[in-house]
Amino acid sequence: MSVLVWIEQMNGQAVASSWEVLGKARQVADDLGAPLVAVAMGADINATAELARQYGADLVLTITSPVLENYRLSAYAAGLRRAIEEVEAVVVLTSATTRGRELSAAVACELEAGLAPDAVDLRVEADKVVAVRAIYSGNILTDVTFDSPVQFASIRPRSFPMPEAGEAVAELQPLDLGVNEDQVAEKVLEVKSTDTGEIGLTDAKIIVSGGRGVAADPVKGFAMVTELAQTLGAAVGASRAAVDAGYIPYRYQVGQTGRTVKPDLYIASGISGAIQHLAGMGSSKVIVAINKDREAPIFERANYGIVGDLYEVLPALTAEFKKRLK
Ligand SMILES: Cc1cc2nc3c(=O)[nH]c(=O)nc-3n(C[C@H](O)[C@H](O)[C@H](O)COP(=O)(O)OP(=O)(O)OC[C@H]3O[C@@H](n4cnc5c(N)ncnc54)[C@H](O)[C@@H]3O)c2cc1C
After folding, report:
1. Which of 92, 66, 80, 109 is nearest to 3 (CA)?
2. What is the side-by-side order of every strand in the sheet holding 151-155?
3. Which atom of ligand 1 is nearest to the CA of 310?
4. What spacing in Å lies between the alpha carbon of 270 and ligand 1's midpoint?
5. Which mean pLDDT values do the consecutive 10-residue runs of the chain (326 residues) have?
6. Which residues contact 198 (CB under 8 A, 6 or more apart)?
7. Distance separating alpha carbons of residues 266 and 208, to the nearest angstrom
């Protein structure tokens, strides 16, 4: 019996939220009295496996194969199943990234096991895991318990702090994937990167977002949002109304049907504060709202509110920050 965490990696680098999951899993494993096992999969996973040793795993399973060079569900699902069998995992955790959600769901289905997707907390009660999920746009927290012997959960990024790296004590144990290229139906023909060098929304410590409030001149409005973001070393975000209107691509959307974020500082400009937007950013540490309507609901959630026209407030903030951050 063990607790197993999939350490996701992309372009040879571990995805940071996997370490948050591993850190929490340490506590779950200790409460269950079970060993904590990390599994790293890929064509080259040396760096990731080494880090998994430092972030608290008792054992690190490594599954190395050219078949795993690019993420493909059937190949990665085969690897995860292999790891689950090897260490008789009773709890299987991934980060709730696009891949983590898909992989945990697919393998949980195959094993007819219960899954708590996008969980925000975990605890142990009577030798079973209880996963906490945010529902109804984040207004209610619900406990999910499991009937199945194996319990799966994917964990929303930034739900837990990064663990401290310590001494690498875990053993590395190589495992054979047991699948060759001919057995994988999905073929990757080309990989096109959308990486623009911008700061990613999910891991950003500061986010400056724009909403439909920029409608009078969306190009100018988002240029102002972007300039403030660049001045603060922040990521740019947007409301769904701004995305639906075509002011900015979907990948910037924050909210129930966009990204869930939890930065230290979230600046919402021209965003009314609809419940579906709050679902994605409501747990930010400090929220600053800029809105010309003093009755806008966002002010109920904001720590600081500026009642004003964003076309005046944003450049004024940028100019002031530029002076102070020189
Ligand atoms: C199933 C479902 C899922 C959804 N998912 C999401 C989601 O993931 N993310 C999301 O954001 N929304 C989502 N929505 C949409 C959500 O309900 C709102 O429609 C949306 O968030 C509104 O975006 P907004 O605040 O930019 O626009 P509005 O609600 O139109 O607000 C614009 C605000 O800008 C202010 N304003 C106007 N001009 C200025 C100015 N010059 N200066 C300053 N302020 C100004 C206005 O006072 C107003 O408060 C979802 C809805 C549904 C039904």
Report:
1. 92
2. 140-144, 128-135, 114-125, 151-155, 89-95, 2-7, 36-42, 59-64, 171-174
3. 42
4. 8
5. 96 91 97 97 94 95 96 97 98 96 98 96 95 86 96 93 89 96 94 76 92 97 97 96 96 92 95 95 95 98 98 98 91
6. 235, 236
7. 6
Residue of the CA atom closest to atom 49 of ligand 1? 272
Which domains are assigned to the chain? 2-183 (3.40.50.620), 206-324 (3.40.50.1220)
- Helices 98-110 & 73-87 angle (0-180, nearest 10): 60
Query: For atom 11 of ligand 1, which residue has the closest CA?
Result: 239
- CA distances, 167 to each of 17, 37, 51, 160, 163 (Å): 20, 16, 10, 21, 12
Q: Token pair of 314, please?
A: 């944003």
Predicted model pTM: 0.80
59 burial via Cβ count (<10 Å: 0-12, 13-18, 19+): buried
Spell out which residues line ligand 1, taking CB within 6 angstroms.
211-213, 239-242, 253-258, 270-272, 274, 276-277, 280, 290-293, 296, 309-311
Separation of 171 CA from ligand 1 center, angstroms?
50
- Whether 65 and 181 have beta carbons less than 8 Å apart is answered as no
Rounded Cα–Cα distance for residues 313 and 110 (Å) = 53
**b/e map of 202-211 (b: 16 or more CB within 10 Å)?**
bebebbbbbb
Q: Alpha-carbon distance 31 to 38, whole Å?
A: 17
